[in-house]
Fold this protein.
Amino acid sequence: MCLAVPAKVLGVDENALGVTMGTVDFGGVTKGVCLACVPDVEVGDYVMVHAGFAISKVDEAEAEETFRLLAELADPPEADGTGPGPDDRPAVPEGGGD
């Protein structure tokens, strides 16, 4: 399965080869990504990023909804409407469970 994650474009420039690159913010984590597939992107736009490449532009509302859904997947609510606490998660065996 492939997953693209939304990010806000903080900066746009060209690298030494003339490829459009940019700095994006994944909700507090900034990374450099290739913007060649979204040539009309501007600072402040939101893009979907997969494997270091921005593959499409999205509006802010769609990006925020995706952030909300990803947060929900990371901490799903219990049947009573409360999410699990850190002590409620299963322990990972030493060595990663291999």
Observations:
- The longest helix spans residues 60-74.
- The radius of gyration is 17 Å.
- The first strand starts at residue 5 and ends at 14.
